[in-house]
Design brief:
The chain has 309 residues and is an alpha/beta fold. It has 10 helices and 9 strands. The protein has 2 domains: 136 residues, Rossmann fold, CATH 3.40.50.1370; 157 residues, Aspartate/ornithine carbamoyltransferase (Rossmann fold), CATH 3.40.50. Bound molecules: phosphoric acid mono(formamide)ester (CP). The site of phosphoric acid mono(formamide)ester (CP) has 9 residues, from helix 2.
Length: 309
């Protein structure tokens, strides 16, 4: 048995045309939600989260409920039979008997791809280790489109943990396929963007980029500043984490040198990397970014279940 249905493991699984269609559907859902309220009646989503989550899991569940469907699942591996030694592949195969679509998160890179081999329903990657987070990217793209008015000709600064920040890897991969992008990678030397992203995306799409460890020296030129937390759970060494965790703290003092129409994004959760005083600045978009994520997940569920409204 092999999964022949469409899944989303990596943002590369969708063409830019398909991503733009999802954005159009999400915009339609925002403008007329009642049209979609029964679109998934009788359908069931399973959320299988082997790693902690607040936004991704709950936004998937809210998305399915707002489409008139229902939700089952677990929020931690310890409350599933994984605890007894069951493999992820077996778990996914079994849940395939109870659900029409699965959203899963797992600490191992590539786990959703391996798990999907033994099921016949669509699988969505809700984050696999330090690798990818494609549904975060879908929400990020809608945020950029709605808040800047465009998905082209943007100078985007990515700041923080660029090594383990899976949301960055997926977003760079998606944005790099739009026209006129210019990237600025801001990180300590220990947390630079991985070579496989440089070779596979930046060089492949011929995207101009620079790397720096000083946010102050580049903030003036940015249209988007995408902040990330240092990913504590991916560090092998607590001392390294403690040394790097507060390397960047975005505050109003730093923002005085930024454009008036800059947008500040963050996949959340935030730790210390954005001072709370920034939340009331009109350029802060990281909470509305969560709302956009739900609308894109609604559009994604419709697409993978082949439901046309
Ligand atoms: N952005 C994001 O993935 O948040 P959660 O870890 O809370 O799902």
């Amino acid at each position: 048995m092999e999964n022949k249905v469409r899944c989303l493991f990596d943002i590369d699984d969708f063409s830019i045309e398909e991503i733009n269609e999802l954005i159009s559907t999400a915009e339609d859902i925002i403008s007329q939600p009642q049209k979609y309220q029964n679109a998934c009646a009788g359908k069931r989503l399973a959320t299988l989260f082997f790693e902690p989550s607040t936004r991704t899991r709950l936004s998937f569940e809210a998305a399915m409920i707002d489409l008139g469907g229902s939700v089952i699942g677990f929020s931690e591996a310890s409350s599933s039979s994984t605890q007894k030694g069951e493999s992820v592949t077996d778990t996914i195969r079994v849940v395939g008997s109870f659900a029409d679509i699965i959203a899963m998160r797992h600490p191992k890179e590539g786990a959703p791809v391996a798990a999907a081999r033994k099921t016949i329903i669509p699988i969505i990657n809700g984050g696999d280790g330090g690798h990818n987070h494609p549904t975060q990217t879908l929400g990020d793209l809608l945020t950029i489109k709605k808040e800047t008015g465009r998905l082209e000709n943007l100078t985007v600064g990515f700041c923080g943990d660029l090594t383990f920040g899976r949301t960055i890897h997926s977003l760079v991969n998606a944005l790099g396929r739009y026209k006129g992008m210019n990237f600025v990678f801001i990180s300590p030397a220990e947390l630079k963007i991985p070579d496989y992203i440089k070779e596979g995306v930046l060089q492949n799409y011929n995207i101009p980029y620079m790397e720096t460890n000083r946010i102050e020296s580049v903030i003036t030129n940015l249209d988007i500043l995408y902040m990330t937390r240092v990913q504590k759970e991916r560090f092998f060494n607590e001392a390294d984490y403690m040394r790097l965790r507060d390397y960047y703290i975005l505050d109003l003092e730093k923002l005085q040198f930024a454009k008036k129409d800059l947008i500040i994004m963050h996949p959340l959760p935030r730790v210390n990397e954005i001072a709370v005083e920034v939340d009331d600045d009109p350029r802060a978009k990281y909470f509305i970014q969560v709302d956009y994520g739900k609308y894109m997940r609604m559009a994604l569920i419709l697409k993978l279940l082949n439901i046309e409204v």
